[in-house]
Design goal:
This is Nuclear transport factor 2 family protein. The protein has 116 residues and is α+β, with helices and mostly antiparallel strands. It has one domain (4-112): Nuclear Transport Factor 2, Chain: A (Roll). Helix content is 25%, strand content 41%. It contains 3 helices and 6 strands; from the N terminus they run ααββαββββ. The relative contact order is 0.21. The model has no long low-confidence stretch (mean pLDDT 96).
Length: 116
């Protein structure tokens, strides 16, 4: 069973480094990454790296807290909160893993918290 913690730690590391090698290491060659559930995905590791870098955050600009909702043999559902200096998002991630622990399919839902 693939545990999500090492992969998420790598994701956060890549998020803070924006290093193409850190990003690339997370995904299989043929992985797909849905930035929204019903949008066209970034298809393939090279497209994922390019898409990520085109939408990158500044290193250290956000904090991410998370916990698993469901972990199965090859998939995990993660609930998280991403906090930026000026906004906060709730996140739900569905991560489908290859046997080696890399991601073969990633889908994220993100919802902006209402600012009162």
């Amino acid at each position: 069973m693939v545990q999500p913690r090492p992969w998420i730690e790598g994701y956060v590391r890549a998020w803070n480094s924006n290093d193409p090698d850190d990003i690339s290491a997370l995904f299989t060659e043929d992985a797909v990454y849905y930035t929204e559930p019903y949008s066209s995905p970034w298809q393939g590791r090279d497209a994922i790296v390019s898409g990520w870098l085109a939408h990158q955050d500044k290193p250290g600009d956000a904090t991410f807290e998370w916990h698993p909702v469901c972990v199965t043999e090859d998939a995990s559902v993660i609930q998280g909160v991403t906090t930026y200096p000026d906004k906060t998002y709730s996140n739900l991630w569905v991560i489908r893993f290859a046997p080696d622990g890399r991601c073969r399919e990633f889908t994220e839902w993100w919802m902006l918290h209402d600012v009162k």
